[in-house]
Amino acid sequence: MPSDFSDTQTVSSNEASNGHIGIFTNSFESAYYSCIVESVSNFLTAHNFHLSVLPKQQSISSEREAFKSLDNGTCDGLIIHADRLDDNELNGLMKQYPTAVMLDRYLPLFADKCVYADNKQGGEIGAQFLLAQGHTKIAMVRGPDSYIEVADRSAGFKSVLASKNIELQAELCGDFLHAGGEYCLEQIHLEHPDVTAVFCQNDVMAFGALKACRRLGIQVPEDLSILGLDGVPMCEYVSPRLTSVQKPLRRLGEHAAQIVSDLVSNVDINQRTKGTIYTPVLAERETVAQPTGYKIERVSLTKRETECLSWTAAGKTSWEISVILGISESTATFHLRNASAKLKASNRTHSVAKALHFGLIPFIDDSFK
Predict the structure, then answer these.
(1) Does 111 fall in a domain?
(2) In sequence order, what DSSP letters do the residues of 87-105 get, joined into one string?
(3) Do the Cβ atoms of 8 and 53 come closer than 8 Å?
């Protein structure tokens, strides 16, 4: 075994190993990658696999070398997190190595072996949420261009702002580390003091931004809102707790581990675990609020919009609402979309929350069960 491998877990000698799995990731030390790798490790070691982690894949050549581990017999299967290689080269490598699984990267030709959380949609959700809170003077701290997800997160965020004819007040390039978030927040404060919300493309930079705010005397969220992306566990433990667009990090790792386990174990193709694209969700905590002086427009919902939202609050789907109200499913969806637009909400759950807050629909009681 190469000397730069580190066994994170070893199957005891009295247990038969089901194979040796390698995990190749950017940095095992980071909160993002460690959360994913831990879930991979827990699953595979519980199923009697040997597991090795080779971190710091920070160049094209090192990512290529990861795949070669299958050729030299080091690993029976691989879980790869690749940032540098382009899709064409990855497609070729995935074709060459049938027991490799792609983590947090989507290749349409190998969709059944890709486990991915939609980064573009994550950016869209973040922008929709900030706009729904009344923010129009927004800055973004993006990650390094060498990371494939940066382009997707930026495109999703900007597309939503553009649809509302809103331009970013500032766009700074960070490093996905605490120091980058801290430095970029300082620059935004100095050069764009009218900004009311900052979207950081990962939680770690958002933690750095919060540190800068404390030092500069900026109150979060009263003076400035901070939004992160990824949903690492530390979001719950910083103060104030970080609002973040959350990816299912542990589920990503477990799902990838299940696929590679099936591949190495030669599970029948019809029974094999398939890859998927996960949708991020907004985890609303304490770092985003309406900007100071923002006035909520008085919203008036029609009777049908009120009924549809009330049944949505009771957990009913569009189809169930259509049956209850005697309307078509498309009509129910139409009224729910109209209500969301009036409430400036990012999704149905957000619409229900705002309607309840403004007293536009009743709280759920026995009448809606």
Answers:
(1) yes
(2) HHHHHHHHHH-TTEEEES-
(3) yes
Based on C-alpha coordinates, what's the Rg of the chain? 23
- Amino acid, single-letter form, for residue 83: D
The answer to the question of residue 202 being in a domain is yes
Tell whether 198 and 217 lie within a shared domain. Answer: yes
Please tell me whether residues 147 and 198 are part of one structural domain: yes
Residue 332 placed within a domain = yes
If you search the block for the tokens 């542990």, which residue do you land on? 250
Distance CA 30, CA 26 (A): 9
Domain CATH number, residue 179? 3.40.50.2300
- State the DSSP code for 271: T
Residue 289 lies in a domain: no
Considering the domain architecture, whether residues 125 and 192 belong to the same structural domain is answered as yes
Last residue within a domain, chosen from 279, 295, 323: 279
Domain that holds residue 238: 119-247
- With contact defined as beta carbons under 8 Å apart, do 318 and 271 qualify? no
pLDDT tens sequence for the chain (369 residues): 333 434 444 433 345 667 899 887 766 567 888 888 889 999 999 999 988 876 555 566 767 777 776 667 778 998 988 877 789 988 998 998 899 999 988 999 999 999 999 999 999 999 999 998 999 999 999 999 888 899 999 999 999 999 999 999 999 999 999 999 999 999 999 999 999 999 999 999 999 999 999 999 999 999 999 999 999 999 999 999 999 999 999 999 999 999 999 999 999 988 999 999 999 999 999 999 989 866 556 678 899 999 999 999 999 999 999 999 999 999 999 999 988 888 877 788 888 888 887 788 886 554 444
